[in-house]
Design a protein that fits this description.
Layout (H helix, E strand, L loop, with lengths): L2 H11 L9 E4 L3 H15 L5 E4 L2 H9 L7 H4 L4 E4 L3 E2 L5 E2 L6 H10 L3 E6 L13 E5 L4 H10 L3 E4 L17 E6 L6 H9 L4 E4 L1 E2 L5 E5 L4 E5 L2
Parallel strand pairs: 1-2, 1-3, 3-6, 6-12
Antiparallel strand pairs: 4-5, 5-11, 7-9, 7-10, 8-9, 12-13
């Protein structure tokens, strides 16, 4: 499968939701990058829109494409958020955070009147946790304590390291660490989301339940649209 073409198709399909005068939350990741690029072209053609980025990656991409930006404080509303996902289950629950922007993404996605998710078809799963670990953003001084509590919930946490980019762990835009937690495929994602969020030291968890309104699933030759029932 041509994954990049599938991503691009999903991103372009989501443009149908964009209306003049909107404030749009800009998610993070390679699929959303296609959306930001297309949105920048629409702005150059005269569409009056403003974006609120969820990460420095999205911020820099929007600047590169000439997209006008604002903040949640200034706009005090988000008409539409367009974001990616690492997994999408049949109830449109999501795993997000492989790009380490899960906390800001959850704020923007929750604040939006409408949340559209754009993915390629490889991100569809029967249950969350089938193909990806669950990212958990944690306060650095508490990560060993949080890791122990996650083990009690049946998870296998691993501190995300920066690899070749830098020595030491990944540090989020908020100055925190990420624990990637392997679980068995998750039967009750909302329950696990709440259990993890109750652990002191957890900033946010990359399970997003009940937020997505519409999902555009890209294939090389088509786009499938899923809506929350």
């Amino acid at each position: 499968m041509n994954v990049e073409e599938a991503k691009r198709k999903a991103a372009l399909a989501a443009l149908e939701l964009v209306k003049d005068g909107m404030v749009i939350g800009l998610g993070t990741g390679s699929t959303v990058a296609y959306f930001i690029e297309a949105l920048g072209e629409k702005a150059k053609e005269g569409l009056r829109i403003k974006g609120i980025p969820t990460s420095y990656q999205a911020y820099l991409k929007a600047l590169e494409k000439g997209l006008p930006l604002t903040t949640l404080d200034e706009a005090q509303r988000i008409d539409l958020a367009v974001d990616g996902a690492d997994e999408v289950d049949m109830s449109l629950n999501l795993v997000k955070g492989m790009g380490a922007a899960l906390t800001r993404e959850k704020v923007i996605d929750s604040a939006a009147k409408l949340l559209a998710i754009i993915v390629d078809s490889s991100k569809l799963v029967r249950r969350l946790g089938e193909t990806k670990p669950i990212p958990v953003e944690v306060l650095p001084f508490a990560y060993t304590y949080v890791a122990g509590k996650l083990k009690e919930l049946g998870g296998e946490p691993k501190l995300r390291m920066a690899g070749e980019v830098k020595d030491g762990p990944v540090v989020t835009d908020n100055g925190n660490f990420i624990l990637d937690v392997e679980f068995q495929p998750i039967q009750y994602p909302a329950k696990l989301e709440e259990e993890i969020k109750r652990i002191p030291g957890v900033v946010e968890v990359g399970i997003f339940t009940g937020l997505a309104d519409i999902v555009y699933v890209g294939y090389p030759d088509k786009v499938e649209v899923l809506r929350r029932s």
